Amino acid sequence: MNIQNKSHPFSADRPIKTRAEDELGRYEFAHSLAEAIRLWKGEDSLVIGLFGQWGQGKTSVKNMILEHLHDHKEFAPYIIEFNPWQWSGQSQIASAFFDEISTTLGRNNSEKNAAERAAKWRQWAILLNICQQTTGSLKRVIPYILWFLAITCGVTGFINYPIVRYISRGLASIFALLGGILQCSSGLAEAVAKYLEEKCRWGAKKLEVVHDELWTLMNEQSKPVLVVLDDIDRLLPDEIRLVFQLVKSNADFPNMIYLLLFQRDYVENVMEQAMGGKEIIRGRDFLEKIINVGFDLPLIEHVKIIQFLSRQINKVFQNIDITEEETHRMGNIFIGELRCYFINLRDVKRFLGSLEFHLNLLRPQGILEVNSTDLIAIETLRVFEPGVYSALPGIKSYLTASREGINESGKSEAKAAIDSVLAKSSKGKQEQVRLILKALFPRIQSIYGNIVFGNDWEDDWYRDRRICHQDIFNRYFLFRVASGDVSQADIERIMNNSGNRDVLVAEFRSFKKQEIFTVLLDRLEAYKQKISLNYAVPFITALYDVGDELPDEIGTSVLLSPELHAIRIVYWCLKQEPDEKKRGKLLVEATKQTTGIFLPTFDAHSEDRKRAKQDRDEFLVDEESSEILKTLCVEKIRQAAGDGSLATNRRLHYLLSKWGEWGRADEPCEWLGKRLETRQGLLAVLLAFVHRSASRTEGAYIDKIHCKFDLKSLEEFVSADTVTAAIGHLKGQDLTDEQREAIGCFKKAKARKQAGKPYALDQIWHDDKED
Questions:
Q1: Do residues 77 and 223 make contact, with C-beta atoms less than 8 angstroms apart?
Q2: How far apart are CA 655 and CA 652, in angstroms?
Q3: Is the distance from CB of 48 to CB of 295 less than 8 angstroms?
Q4: If you ran DSSP here, which 8-state letter would residue 442 be given?
Q5: Beta-bridge partners for 693
Q6: Are 85 and 234 in contact (CB under 8 A)?
């Protein structure tokens, strides 16, 4: 990727450069003002003011003015762009101002006396600067001079000559008195300073002579000079006053045009404060004495601002696929709830820069991890309603609660929580924020009304990455996929390879290695009816292939086990086909091809139970296919028993029960009896019948893991005494911790049985002390 061609996320706040970028219809204004400047023929100077609020686009209009003048360079004035905001301190601003003028004039070699004119500007700048500094410094220095003289005379007052002593002491008193008066009276000090400064100007510097010479040279120039001063309102108050003093001091030279850009009310207030703030109109009067003609930026129609924002949003999302339905929803929520926040260009620029920045965070692999419409809405709240935005994570449970999650008694509590967030809205916007939240979180409509969204909406919301889904919500505040979750990029990669069994198996095992395979299965539930029937066999086969590797979910918050997720995905994928015989053929084919045992057996068992209940609407396959599936599973179990892989299968006890139920009842007993005859076989059997569960007491933060032995299931195939006898031949020093634990669990279970206590796993006990 070419980084130079990639737009910067904050570029939306930059002014446009050319009229080709003008999307707000202000070029005509810029063109007319540029023409007025170009055709100016007056002998006197001209000072033009261009007024507008911060962020309203003054610099953009200025750029279009200058573009037009450059396009007509032969008949346009010489252009000097001076941005005082780029210079620090009053002395640097004044120096840079004159340097820019003299340098520009000196470059124009086609002009007669160009070098002399540039030199005269520099001389004028030096003299003017000296006089201005004198005015300011004398007022401060005069009292100190008088005190110095008073001290000097006081010292000479100790001379032995009486006349000298009396005169020196008298002068010391007079100088000290005058110094004190001038220090206390700023008006008198200023008057004295002005008098001395006028004497300095009249006697030594001949400023008027240089002025007249410069005036003549400027009058002889063939084209005027346009000095553009932008961002004046960004300066400090003292610097603002300096800029206007510079313009005022140089405003009477011919062929000089000044274009000043600033926020009028702010600068007027600064000038008013400088003059004591007695009358509001005085600041405006001061500016009107300097500015010959002033213009306000043309008002931008709100509809144009919204159209501009819409075009910019389209550019931001140009590489993201958005469905027609989502585009329609985006338009409705934007026009209905969001547009009131975008009043001027500053609002638009703030929003766009923030939106693009967070959008880039939320698509690290090129795929957007959130919903585009919800991102725009939540980003609007973040920028314009920060109090509301920051409070939303605290009420997530109410915003994303399922229909069963909030009953009638809980509605008042939920409403109070949401109302407390609405109270953080900006003035006059509370009802607007309420509408935004209703659009983002449909289920809160049940709190304020009677509209109810059932759980059948969950899959749609997850696929659409809506903020109202509890598994997606946090992404809008983390600006990434939460640790331990599956990204949209992962989901799309799985779906794009749904017809490639080998790739899917590799992907599934990769997620298992990351310990998030169960999370993946949970997320794939939302896509179970989006898997193409053309890819049903390879997809189901790949799922079956890894079924024997499904993890235990001990001590986790998952609601469904991995195998239940897997079976639901298979069921609803095939349910897209209305004919149960065709569904049966697909499932039989996947069972034939798979190398797995547990999931196809679990699936066949699930179908067998539905048939036992005679709930025909729940049938997945026809009766013939159901029988074929059971036969295929028995064959797979027998094959695994023959090659030794069955002994190490973590679902051994379950597979043995189905083997005996669907095959010959004596087969699993004979096989298991032979396994107990070997050390390796015995230990594998013991480990396979250990069951782990978790519990947590009130106030605890860590689950307690319980290990129980499924003795009841084992006794369906072999007696407990036979196992006890086999264990007696083991040498304890060669056992692993896990193997010792399995033996201990078996002995506890047998002891419970002998004591007449319940010992089946469906009679769960958690009191380890009792064991």
A1: yes
A2: 5
A3: yes
A4: G
A5: 706
A6: yes
